[in-house]
TrEMBL record:
Catalytic activity: (S)-dihydroorotate + H2O = N-carbamoyl-L-aspartate + H(+)
Cofactor (UniProt): Zn(2+)
Gene3D superfamilies recorded: Metal-dependent hydrolases, Urease, subunit C, domain 1
SUPFAM superfamilies (alphabetical): Composite domain of metallo-dependent hydrolases, Metallo-dependent hydrolases
EC number(s) from the headed UniProt entry: 3.5.2.3
Species whose genome carries this gene: Nocardioides abyssi
Name the UniProt record assigns to this protein: Dihydroorotase
Lineage start: Bacteria, Bacillati, Actinomycetota, Actinomycetes, Propionibacteriales
Transmembrane segment boundaries: none
The keyword Membrane is assigned to this record: no
Length: 431
């Protein structure tokens, strides 16, 4: 395969069309190229396409080890490449849990072998996600996987003393604790957003305050110990406001919003179709609007997919028995275009910040999230915002099919993804 790609007439971050030359893993030219001066160059006509830095996901469930029926590192990273991602952070709620240097090194190695995108394992905060004892955070940080993000995602680190100690501990290696903010007692048996509709549908409600109370507490803890906090999947207007106020006070807090929370609402629970069951739950239209506004003004730093594959037997059942979670990698950019770019809330530079630069910064990943400029690693996605497509779950590279967008028409398509100058997706297909 060629190691030299001349991309003609491409709009870098939405700017005027120009040329982009990738060779031997790096960007060697941005601007009109008359003669690349190398024989083996492959030319791509990118008229109408936008070039973005390779996307970085801070929140992906790859399910390996343990639930290879739902997803593997191989299948999940193929889905990531199809979505324009060149790096993903793999959540720790696997079986066994990624709470030791051994498990995170295994996941990291599987990512390298698969080669579709770089995999950065997230380490668990507590042993077995049990919320009782701190995991070996230092050993995971020092391992070959160089873990910097720690999370019990799927479960909340609800014990304030443990949370405080984790925040203190990760300072030693510039790590961050990514909190799944869910007060457990306030959400016992919870099935959907608490409101008029949950009462009508007879499904146990999940109050906004269960999320907001933990975020407020954690902001205060992070401020108290002078550490770095990241808030996973923010879903309520109140949460956005708490993060906004904490940032204004100088707390070192970052936050993510998921594509599904930017577009779907709790009314979908009325279908009783568990495809819409997710943690945290889909919220109200007002929450969706507040998340969009927060993402636009920088209160919410990033979009993270929370790609959560589940096999159909865990979703093909009644609502209360079904698993929480939905696919996200292959549709994230389209949802962001639909909800943020097309309505004028973000431009493509803003998308690059929220889906590449900022997640790489938060995860302390040096080789990703870099502007497309001469000398940078050639991690690039070519995206066609002008087409529309109907989501067909059977086309997914994921081993699971639980996309809530089945049959929906969405804008945009990833045409090519380059990982260090090597295409992982070309002409819209996996290489
Ligand atoms: N988001 C979800 O609904 N599910 C996630 C766990 C999580 O992100 O909390 C999963 O692992 O399936
Ligand atoms: Zn979570
Ligand atoms: Zn998650």
């Amino acid at each position: 395969m060629s190691t030299s790609y001349l991309i003609r007439n491409v709009s870098v971050l939405g700017g005027e069309p120009t040329d982009l030359h990738l060779r031997d893993g790096v960007v060697v030219a941005v601007g009109a190229v008359s003669d690349p001066g190398d024989g083996g160059v492959e030319t791509i006509d990118a008229t109408g396409l936008v070039a973005l830095p390779g996307l970085v996901d801070l929140h992906t469930h790859l399910r390996e080890p343990g639930r290879e029926d739902a997803e593997t590192v191989e299948s999940g990273t193929r889905a990531a490449a199809r979505g324009g991602f060149t790096a993903v952070h793999a959540m720790a709620n696997t079986e066994p849990v990624a709470d030791t240097a051994g498990v995170v090194e295994q996941v990291w190695r599987l990512g390298r072998e698969a080669g579709h995108c770089d995999v950065y394992p997230v380490g668990a905060v507590t042993v077995g996600l049990q919320g009782e004892r701190l995991a070996e955070l230092g050993a995971m940080a020092d391992s070959a996987a160089r873990v910097r993000v720690f999370s019990d995602d799927g479960k909340c680190v609800s014990d304030a003393v443990l949370m405080r100690r984790a925040l203190e501990y990760v300072k030693a290696f510039d790590g961050v604790v990514a909190q799944h903010a869910q007060e457990p007692r306030l959400t016992e048996g919870a099935q959907m957003n608490e409101g008029e509709l949950s009462g009508k549908l007879g499904l146990a409600g999940w109050p906004a305050v269960a999320e907001e109370a933990v975020i407020a507490r954690d902001c205060l803890l992070a401020e108290h110990v002078g550490s770095r906090l990241h808030v996973c999947h923010v879903s309520t207007a109140g949460s956005v406001q708490i993060v906004r106020e904490a940032k204004a006070r100088g707390v070192d807090v970052t936050a993510e919003a998921c594509p599904h929370h930017l577009i779907l609402t709790d009314e979908l629970a009325a279908t009783y179709d568990p495809i819409y069951k997710v943690n945290p739950p889909l919220r109200t239209r007002a929450d969706v609007e507040a998340l969009r506004a927060g993402l636009a003004d920088g209160t919410i730093d990033i979009v993270a997919t929370d790609h959560a594959p589940h096999p159909h037997e865990d979703k093909d059942c009644e609502w209360s028995a079904a698993a929480f979670g939905m696919l996200g990698l292959e549709t994230a950019l389209s949802i962001v275009q639909e909800t943020m770019v097309d309505p004028g809330l973000l431009d493509w530079a803003g998308v690059a910040e929220r889906m590449s630069y900022a997640p790489a910064r938060i995860g302390r990943v040096a080789d990703h999230g870099r502007p497309i400029e001469v000398g940078a690693p050639a991690n690039v996605v070519l995206y066609d915002p002008s087409v529309r497509r109907t989501v067909d779950p059977t086309e997914s590279a994921s081993l699971s099919r639980n996309t809530p967008y089945r049959g929906m028409e969405l804008p945009g398509r990833v045409v090519a993804t380059f990982l260090r100058g090597r295409p992982t997706v070309l002409a819209g297909a996996l290489v």
